[in-house]
Design a protein that fits this description.
Strand order of the largest sheet: 1-4-5-8
Oligomer: single chain
Number of strands: 8
Number of helices: 11
Mean pLDDT: 92
Structural class: alpha+beta
Largest sheet: 4 strands, mixed
Amino acid sequence: MSDAAELSRLTAELLAAHPPQSTGRLDFLRARFDAGLAWVHYPVGLGGLAAPRALQAAVDAELAAAGAPDNDARRNGIGLGMAAPTILKYGTDEQKRRFLKPLWTGEEVWCQLFSEPGAGSDLAALGTRAVQEDGGDWIVNGQKVWTSGAHNARWAILIARTDPAVPKHAGITYFLCDMTDPGVDVRPLRQITGEAEFNEVFLTDVRVPDAHRLGETGDGWRVAQTTLNNERVAIGGMRLPREGGMIAPVAKTWRERPELRTHDLHQRLLKLWVESEVSRLTADRLRQQLSAGQPGPEGAGMKLAFARLNQEISGLEVELLGSEGLLYDDWTMRRPELVDFTGREAGYRYLRAKGNSIEGGTTEILLNIVAERVLGLPAEPRTDKDVAWKDLAR
């Protein structure tokens, strides 16, 4: 399938068979998935038509113009942006059939159980253990942290140590974890914004069937790289309109409130507006490259730019607003379903953007990735790469 006209015809058939005005939201989304119009670049039968990725935008536009519901992608960003491409690449046929459809429709929200209190930037040092019972289920014990949306999640992508006697990167296995297991304990982590979109998750004798292992035993680090590369693209390479994202509210305030303007702020706004547009266009190029295969380390550069721009733009906005920028609407402890940067006030944007240089890979680690994997610079010295995990100093 490479014909835009044919995709348009299939979209029209979907709308005729399931009119959005008289079809329930979930019924429409399920029908869209079955028609191959969810991810057009995915295989036939898995929500796609094996079409070029670039054709998805035209399908989305036609459906939006017809008033069709979308799958509220922000609510399940980890599932759509990270879990789905990893399951597609490494999952068995049964796993793909079981998980991809309810993931795309939003019936099952996903979270990511990767980081730990002692394994954040050095993720491969993780200590959560998974022990297999006589070739059957795996029993998982440990603690994860900074888990976005765990309080709403039905499933989790999980990496755990299955062999402590080999070097740290080699003894990790990747699992799909049922968040309703009685051994899963989700506790809120209240942030500087007053909300608790993050969580810490304690795993006590959590039972994971071997059928929910993704990839081979001990190959979890390689599988996780697919997740992490997609995560950086999902965060830093999101599709935005011209003057979209964090620059939008600042530009709007500048136009509507001339009394706030100064020469210095003008120069800084112009610089950040141009950098935002460059970043947006670079993200478009990156998404076009994705049509040729899986994302590579280039996504780290986009995520770096995303974090820096968000923090600089939100800081400029607070300065532009003066004393108004210090106001904050609500410090109530809440468990939000999504992060809404542009739907809140300047104070929220300023505080929440502080986490952008930590989440999805710290700026320091991403700089190493760009240096080593994109620019080909000499690698940082690593004295522990051939040492068994159990022998590492902790």
